[in-house]
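Justification of resources, computational component.

The compute hours requested in this renewal are based largely on the per-chain cost of generating structure records like the one below. Each record pairs the submitted sequence with a full structure-token output. That output is archived, and it is also reused by downstream analysis tasks.
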Amino acid sequence: MLDFKRPKKPSPQKQSIDGFRPQVNSLGTRQPNPSTVSLGDSNSKKDGFQPQFELDRQMSKALENKASLPPEGLSAHMANNAVPKSKSRSKLRKSFKIVGISAGTLALCTLLVGGFLFGKAWLTAHKIFQGGGSSTTLFSTDVKPETLKGEGDGRVNILLTGIGGGNRDGADLTDTIMIASIDPVAKDVTLLSLPRDLWVKVPDYWTMKINAAYSSALYRAIDNGSTESDAKEAGFATLETTIEEHIGIPIHYHAMVNFQAFQEGVNAVGGIDVQVDEPLYDPYISPNSNGLIAGEGLQHFDGFTALQYSQSRQTSSDFARGERQREVIIALKEKILAAGTFSNPKAISSLIDALGDNVEINASLGELVRMYEITKDIPSSAIANVGLTDEPNDLIMTDNVNDQSIVRPVAGLNDYSEVQSFVRNTLRDPFLKSENATIAVLNGTPTSGLATIKATELKSFGYNVIIIDDAPTKDYQSTVVYDKTGNTKKYTRNYLEKRLGVQVSEEPLSSNPILVTADFIVVLGQNEITSSKN
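The structure output for this chain reads:
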């Protein structure tokens, strides 16, 4: 079965006894202070969400329960997700200065307007757009089916991240994780937010909140003597693989923007306008004595207020924060692409200065220009905003594991099947969508229910399964796929061959007693039973 895993850079480490690792930091619980603005999260909440920085209680718990301690030989800062103390790591942190709880906002806008960086921006652009990502369909959708790795590879998926930064503990946790998915065929964009507390098994590591995947790989690479650039790439590779395995879609590019770039970027375009449905109060980060961040109605935000609005969660939830971040992204996109902004040389110059060394994207300048060309005519109203708790798709919930407040699938602690099916069908592969081939799945074995299981799997990848039934005989040793379209739906054919690990049969269907009407007929053999057990 195909997947989108990258080569595993770090060598595996031993697991802890129960597979879990404590999320421990070295800051105590922070109390509300209206006169102080902080970029971190604060004390625990009644809704089940807790801050990342409640280390005293968690540390005592970890010491009391050796089963939850990190595997032997791992450095303490990796167990704690805390700031590394060596000079090399301190130097690395200072060079990052990546803050921006809502850093993905400016990252996406950078992707959407990259084609305008010219003249003065040439050298700046080469600092920002480092290359390294790849997409088969970005420059042309007229591609050979065999060049696509699997379902979903027809889209262009960009991982947007924001990191706490600074010199405090937890500075390298990716507290903003968002995916901007572009359909280059239909020319539409969808934004998907992932909660920072999502509980996942990170490949080659242990089970943790998803916001610690990047920092765990980053620190291990530093400890192994990697350069700053290689350490960051190791962090991204681990986070991307974690997302691909749990959410079920490939990641083609990633972007990271620091707090300075976000705030100055908003200010450079004269602020943004956001329609606020209800007043937002958060005394933990607001400098106002009453804790007000934004009133109800159409509000004009400068960079500082936009950051607060995107960051706040202590008086709402992580889910509500994700929705506000998407609102800010759309508002900033509208303002940057407005005619008034691009006719103002001073605004353009300020925006370029704000980007400077504060943005990292593993796309080339040419790839960014192409992204702009695809998305430039998409109105903000056509950008779909998707969350894993958006009604009626209640797919994730809060829970508690080892005294940590986490977010997990409703289906079960490690059962991401429903999440994957929802995401894959929401971000459906454009070639599967355009061909919309009909599929019949027949059980050619004595094992009851096999066709239903396989049909459910295919549906989760966006296939249009219309028939689930038994084959005329039960003696099929190997799965067979028949193509009744005469290879006119070549992308679906290619995807089915890769998904099922077979070649489409060239046997004329007229010589076979299967009498069903569908573009493709899948007859399951005994090999499916064996593979399902492995």
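The chain has a mean pLDDT of 76. The radius of gyration is 24 Å.
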